[in-house]
Each structure stands twice: as structure tokens, then as C-alpha cells.
């Protein structure tokens, strides 16, 4: 999935709207800079805004009271954060964390919901994205249960690489451990295995993708399934 393609950052969901609808929506948005590690939503807290990433990456994370967590979806410029607002839910059920620094379009929740009421085109686009997001969340749950850490790490790196500029990612052991829901030792073992095959360069706090086709082969088939459902959505909104 070639998510980021243009020099001028934009959001693909909004780009799929008719021009007059898109401009009307953008008039109520504010461009906000997100730094790496910024928390933009917490479970149980009210969602004051809907976010549409331009050139940043946001992880959606399920958390446990014990402190455990697992990334269940991610949103780059092909998606948004706050989709449950279209269902009338005002509180977040997931944690949303800026995994990659960049900019987002930010619109107040009430304003977003008003646009949904006035724009059938926006409602259709959001429903299609909701279907994609539900598929990604369910796929992540199955993947975490049935697939090995090495294959899951390859999938995660591919999904992140799709949504970022460049091959280098600044990621810590602790961060990857939380995203994959495994111990740090498991992350280290999996990363070293991918590195030994020449697919990535793995240094402390940094991973560089060296051989993308090899990562495709190392990943589980969940990555292909993710790409296919995004492709179907793009065909529908084209």
C-alpha cells in the first residue's frame, strides 16, 4: 500500500470527497503539529476532536488495567482517529499515540458530527473507513494469537513503512514491546533474526528497512489482507 505519495501532505479520506464538500470540511479544521510520543486519546476520556493525519502516524492501542497494551490498528494519511464519533460515542475506547511526528488536521467533535449530518458523501466515506478499521482490529487480534513474533514484527514494520517517509524508523525496544504485546527479549530476538537475513538494520533506538521484498516474505499473510481491504476501499471512493 503506497500511502504517502505526494510532496504536499494531504489526507486521502478527505481527498476522496467532492471538492466543495472537502473545502467546506477543511474550513473547520486546524492543522496541528504532533511530536513523537504524544498521547491524543485515552480510554474513557471524552474525544474533543477528530484527527486526520497528513504526514504523521498514530497507533491505536488496547490497554489493560494491569498495564498491558497491544496495538490493534494504525492510522496514517489513509485514515483518521475518532471514527466512533460517527456512531455517537463521545468517549474513546482505545489509546491513541503519535508513533511518528508530523501534522494532523484537527476538527472539533461536534463540528465533525454536524458535517456528517449535512454531507451524505462524508458519511459514506467514514462508514467505509469504519469497515476497514474494524477489519484491521480483528486481524490484529487473530495475528497476535496465531502468528510468531518475527512474522508479526515484519508485518508491523511494513505497515509503518507504508505510512512514513523514508526507510529509517526511530523506535525503542520498549515501544515495540508495547505495540506487539510481547516481552522486550522477544522483540530483540525477532529483530536480530530479521537483521541476520539482511532485511533490516537494527541499532539501539533505530530500525532501517533494507530489503522490502524480503520483509514481505517474512511477514504473515495478515499484511496482504490489510493491503487488500484498503485497496477495495480506495476503489470504492475513487
TrEMBL record:
Keywords: DNA-binding, Transcription, Transcription regulation. The keyword Transcription regulation applies. Gene3D superfamilies: Jelly Rolls, Winged helix-like DNA-binding domain superfamily/Winged helix DNA-binding domain. It comes from the Bacteria. It holds the Pfam family HTH_Crp_2. Residues 147-213 form the HTH crp-type domain. SUPFAM superfamilies: cAMP-binding domain-like, Winged helix' DNA-binding domain. InterPro entries: cNMP-bd_dom, cNMP-bd_dom_sf, Env_Response_Regulators, HTH_CRP, RmlC-like_jellyroll, WH-like_DNA-bd_sf, WH_DNA-bd_sf. This is Crp/Fnr family transcriptional regulator.
